[in-house]
């Protein structure tokens, strides 16, 4: 690319560990032009983030850049002095990280963090920097930028913090912006707003962007070209539309095939990639993907393929497609059978649940504010059913999960589990309930004791609840549990940090299964996992449902995953369920404007989107009438009154004055 802002040539980054050198980035090359967005995708451990940190020279020992060039407008970043590097980062290049909460200083106000680079590089005095910072926040879509400038990071939602991070990156009007998973774990509506914001930087300011993500839908939405990485090297590069529709490397093909889509047939299982990435200390001699490749030939096991042209403007590292041939079309999974109607009694019934959280007083004479987290939720779960709960952050999903598992006590309402009223249980009665009603949390690493071996973590609840009488008996059960979730029983002696994210989530599921529950409440169990690991975990949960008759209450913000996994779906907004229906009906004919907007915001290549503006109202002061009316595209005067619950079809209930009135994009 002759007009490239950034040109990376044969970049090599090595981690020198006690076990030996690990080539985390191995001969990576690509370029990015002015006003272009390049996407980099791959599983965890593929080298995406290390590549970005290498470009910015942010890596500390034991990592070391041992080869290649990073040419920015002709200058090699890798040969810059520390002073030159500091000036370059401030004026020419910036990076936005995945975790905006840890990327912001919790004790500094937002304005100081946005403007400190401008002031440090002498481009503006304090007064001009203040005006510039407030204008940046306004440009990034931050509501009430003057007030936001005086706030602290913890006072913002995840989406607003990510906008602040982008504002910090754009403060010096950089030519190059590196964004490392900037939308991971964000709600679909906030994700859509951030993606539109990044696209606007391309169009308005000509910013060159390198966007790193494991979400192919995100990449396909705004990236012109895509680089696919596997085991530290580039395995395919080309125009995004071509790579996603006609991938020429088997790994790119498998990634594209594993992504749940809203328009795909609903199948009994999610497609995934067999096997695991290679050990970085013992890479295969030939193609690094060969052990997992369904089309491998003899040559793949002995010779490493070069990254070569397979079509105009396209490169692939594959012996099978080296002559320009295409891989077979994607597999179309068999349709799953619709869930059979059941006449049995519900396993879980919740009626009119309410949970409010009083906040500390701001002053001695001030009034105490209250967070209205859950405001009259009713639902049920049948034996063996998979109920999905979706909605934006702050809508009450996680609080609802903690209510039905009795980690929180409801302020009002009733909960019946397996015929027993559990809303007011305590002490020994509540302890006896725990084995039948288990929870799997979003972050398995945070829910596993880092100082305990996995075997002890799994054995502890067995011994506490009398499922095993002796340590030896518990050890046998632990081995069986690990085998049940697809892990080697000999790994029981390992610690949590020795496992990948997907493996840790399997361990969390094994811990829940050990007590033989009837219902598992899973709170965002796959939101931070790669698409392939996500498919493996969800398929495991489906298998266990078939073998053990488990029911699931499945909380997620990825609507395509919910569609693929759940029998029935409830949509929450501001502490209430606004729509509930069988999954097939809700995704085919959504009736509430909020549901329509959520579905339309899902990033999928080739789909038009409705980007829902703003954020939900504050839970400190609930609005009168319909809670969604301030953001609703079809709000009417009648919406100032509370909407009545309406059943528009069997099992399809909507909380709206005019269900079905908003269809989204024409």
UniProtKB/TrEMBL annotation:
InterPro entries: AAA+_ATPase, ABC_Ni/Peptide_Import, ABC_transporter-like_ATP-bd, ABC_transporter-like_CS, Oligopep_ABC_C, P-loop_NTPase. GO terms for molecular function: ATP binding; ATP hydrolysis activity. SMART domains: AAA. GO terms for biological process: peptide transport; transmembrane transport. It is found in: Cell inner membrane. PROSITE patterns: ABC_TRANSPORTER_1, ABC_TRANSPORTER_2. Residues 6-256, 348-599 form the ABC transporter domain. Transmembrane segments: none annotated. Gene3D superfamilies: P-loop containing nucleotide triphosphate hydrolases. Keywords: ATP-binding, Cell membrane, Membrane, Nucleotide-binding, Transport. The keyword ATP-binding applies. GO terms for cellular component: plasma membrane. It holds the Pfam family ABC_tran. This is ABC transporter ATP-binding protein.
């Amino acid at each position: 690319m002759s007009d490239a802002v950034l040109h990376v040539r044969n970049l090599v980054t090595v981690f020198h560990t006690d076990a030996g050198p690990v080539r985390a980035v191995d001969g990576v090359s690509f370029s990015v032009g002015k006003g272009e967005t390049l996407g980099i995708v791959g599983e965890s451990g593929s080298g995406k983030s290390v590549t970005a940190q290498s470009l910015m020279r942010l890596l500390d020992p034991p990592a070391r850049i041992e080869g290649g060039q990073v040419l920015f407008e002709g200058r090699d970043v890798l040969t810059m002095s520390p002073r030159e590097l500091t000036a370059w980062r401030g004026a020419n290049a910036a990076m936005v990280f995945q975790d905006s909460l840890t990327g912001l200083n919790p004790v500094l106000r937002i304005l100081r963090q946005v403007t400190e680079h401008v002031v440090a590089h002498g481009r503006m005095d304090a007064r001009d920097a203040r005006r510039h910072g407030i204008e940046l926040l306004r440009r990034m879509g931050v509501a009430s930028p003057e007030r936001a400038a005086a706030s602290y990071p913890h006072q913002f939602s995840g989406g607003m913090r990510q906008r602040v991070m982008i504002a910090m990156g754009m403060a010096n009007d950089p030519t190059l912006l590196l964004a490392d998973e900037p939308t991971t774990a964000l709600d679909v509506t906030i994700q859509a707003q951030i993606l539109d914001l990044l696209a606007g930087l391309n169009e308005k300011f000509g910013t060159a962007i390198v966007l790193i993500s494991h979400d192919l839908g995100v990449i396909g939405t705004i990236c012109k070209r895509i680089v696919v990485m596997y085991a530290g090297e580039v395995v395919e590069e080309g125009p995004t539309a071509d790579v996603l529709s006609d991938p020429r490397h088997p790994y790119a093909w498998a990634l594209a095939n594993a992504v749940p889509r809203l328009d795909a047939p609903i199948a009994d299982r999610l497609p995934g990639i067999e096997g695991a990435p290679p050990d970085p200390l013992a890479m295969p001699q030939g193609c690094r993907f060969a052990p997992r490749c369904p089309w491998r030939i003899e040559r793949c096991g002995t010779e490493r393929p070069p990254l070569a042209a397979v079509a105009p403007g396209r490169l692939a590292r594959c012996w099978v497609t080296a002559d320009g041939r295409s891989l077979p079309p994607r597999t179309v999974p068999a349709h799953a059978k619709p869930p059979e109607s059941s006449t049995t009694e519900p396993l879980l019934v919740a009626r009119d649940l309410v949970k409010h959280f009083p906040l500390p007083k701001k002053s001695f004479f001030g009034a105490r504010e209250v967070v209205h987290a859950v405001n009259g939720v009713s639902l049920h779960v049948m034996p063996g059913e998979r109920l999905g709960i979706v909605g934006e952050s702050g809508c009450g999903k996680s609080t609802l999960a903690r209510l039905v598992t009795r980690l929180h006590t409801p302020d009002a309402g009733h909960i019946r589990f397996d015929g027993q009223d559990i809303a007011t249980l305590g002490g020994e009665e509540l302890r006896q309930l725990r084995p039948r009603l288990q929870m799997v949390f979003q972050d398995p690493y945070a829910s596993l004791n880092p100082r305990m071996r996995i075997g002890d973590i799994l054995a502890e609840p067995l011994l506490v609840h009398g499922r095993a009488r002796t340590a030896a008996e518990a050890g046998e059960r632990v081995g069986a549990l690990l085998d049940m979730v697809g892990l080697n029983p000999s790994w029981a002696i390992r610690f949590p940090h020795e496992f990948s994210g997907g493996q840790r989530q399997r361990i969390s599921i094994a811990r829940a299964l050990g007590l033989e529950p009837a219902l598992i409440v899973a709170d965002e169990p796959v939101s931070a996992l790669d698409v392939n690991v996500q498919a493996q975990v969800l398929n495991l949960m489906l298998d266990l449902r078939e073998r053990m008759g488990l029911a699931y209450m499945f909380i997620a913000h990825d609507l395509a995953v919910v569609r693929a996994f759940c029998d029935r779906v409830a949509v929450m907004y501001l502490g209430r369920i606004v729509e509930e229906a069988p999954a097939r009906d809700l995704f085919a004919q959504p009736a509430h404007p909020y549901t329509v907007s959520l579905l339309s915001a899902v990033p999928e290549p080739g789909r038009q989107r409705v980007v829902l503006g703003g954020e939900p109202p504050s839970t400190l002061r609930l609005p009168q009438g319909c809670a969604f009316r301030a953001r609703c595209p079809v709000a009417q005067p009648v919406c100032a009154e509370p909407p009545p619950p309406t059943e528009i079809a069997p099992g399809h209930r909507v909380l709206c004055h005019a269900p079905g009135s908003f269809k989204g994009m024409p």
